[in-house]
Amino acid sequence: MSNIQLCYNIERQDFSKAGEASSNIKKALRQLGINSGTIRRVAVATYEAEMNIIIHSEGGIIGVTVDVDKIRIDAKDTGPGIEDIDMAMKEGYSTATPEIRELGFGAGMGLPNMKRYADEFKIESSVGNPTIITIVIYL
Amino acid sequence: MLVKELIEALNLELIAGEEGTENKITGVYISDLLSWVMAKLQAGNVWITIQTHVNVVAVALLGEASCMIIPEGADIDENTIAKANEEKIPLLRSQLTAYELALKIKEVSKI
């Protein structure tokens, strides 16, 4: 069986469409008959990745690859990069503005939530470069 | 208990998403921090939040909330109402506080 790939463009600061890519991914996985627990883990990971791209980056893409034994999520933006990844991975740490926080975002839970729901989690980033996140969830 | 039964029991205002009122209620979750909600809300939970911008609908949808209740009669954005209708997620409103709502839901649903 060949794998199935989904790809979504995420615009920076586009809060009107926030969550749309994750919702579409979720619907597609349901149609593929993936079990609900796995779908939930993918939904949380893709939602957090989507929100991070909207809030913090200059825009990016989220790709989902469904294989026979795993689902892989690739989130890649076009910068500006993360200065201190260790800090960014800490629960409660966020660089979001007060305006963003008033909307209920910027809780500093995005990256920790992604890692929590992943079987494999990798983040690559540095100032002036893209942030690339790879998440694998086993089926 | 179904959402439509809860609406009747608590005299909730049905703002949007009437098509989802047959959803079954499994519990209650209260938070305004969307990442917390994404991580902790269980499928079928009633989600009580004072956040009323359009993004709450995506969170409710992804977390599989049975419905959303906006407490204390807060104003709700027009595009949030449109999105809740589109996604068939019941968007309800009450004059009660989140705490009072939770107590009443416990009383009428026994969950």
Set down the secondary structure blueprint.
The complex is a heterodimer of chains A (139) and B (111).
Chain A: E1 4-10, H1 20-31, H2 36-56, E2 60-66, E3 70-77, H3 85-88, H4 98-102, H5 110-116, E4 120-124, E5 132-138
Antiparallel strand pairs in A: 1-2, 2-3, 3-5, 4-5
Chain B: H1 3-10, E1 13-16, E2 27-30, H2 34-40, E3 45-48, H3 55-63, E4 67-70, H4 78-87, E5 91-93, H5 98-109
Parallel strand pairs in B: 2-3, 3-4, 4-5
Antiparallel strand pairs in B: 1-5
Helix pairs in contact in B: 2-3, 3-4
- Estimate nothing, just give the exact number of structural domains of chain B: 1
Number of helices of chain A: 5
Tell me the total number of β-strands of chain A: 5
> What coarse outline of chain A follows from CA principal-axis ratios?
globular
Biggest β-sheet of chain A, characterized?
A: 5 strands, antiparallel
Secondary-structure element sequence of chain A? EHHEEHHHEE
Between the first and last Cα atoms of chain A, what is the distance in angstroms? 15 Å
Mean pLDDT of chain A: 95
Offer a few descriptive terms:
heterodimer, A: 139 residues, alpha+beta, Heat Shock Protein 90, five-stranded antiparallel beta sheet, 5 helices, 24% strand, globular, B: 111 residues, alpha/beta, Udp-n-acetylmuramoylalanyl-d-glutamate--2,6- Diaminopimelate Ligase, Chain: A, domain 1, five-stranded mixed beta sheet, 41% helix, 17% strand, kinase (chain A), kinase activity (chain A), HATPase_C_sf (chain A), HATPase_dom (chain A)
Task: Describe it.
Chain B: InterPro entries: DRTGG (IPR010766), Ser_kin/Pase_Hpr-like_N_sf (IPR028979). Chain B: This is DRTGG domain-containing protein. Chain B: Residues 5-107 form the DRTGG domain. Chain A: This is Anti-sigma regulatory factor (Ser/Thr protein kinase). The complex is a heterodimer of chains A (139) and B (111). Chain A has 139 residues and is α+β, with helices and mostly antiparallel strands. In chain A, 35% of the residues lie in helices and 24% in strands. Chain A has five helices and five strands. In chain A, strands 1-2-3-5-4 form a five-stranded antiparallel beta sheet, with helices on one face. In chain A, a hairpin with a 7-residue loop joins strand 4 (120-124) and strand 5 (132-138). In chain A, helix 1 packs antiparallel against helix 2 (36-56) and helix 2 runs antiparallel to helix 5 (110-116). The mean pLDDT of chain A is 95. Chain B has one domain: 3-Layer(aba) Sandwich (Udp-n-acetylmuramoylalanyl-d-glutamate--2,6- Diaminopimelate Ligase, Chain: A, domain 1), CATH 3.40.1390. In chain B, helix 3 (55-63) links the parallel strand 3 (45-48) and strand 4 (67-70). The model of chain B has no long low-confidence stretch (mean pLDDT 96). The chains are: A alpha+beta (139), B alpha/beta (111). Chain A binds chain B through residues 15-16, 18-20, 22-23, 26, 36, 40, 43-44, 47-48, 51, 103-105, 107-110, 113, 116, and chain B through 32-36, 38-39, 43, 49, 51, 53-59, 61-64, 79, 87.
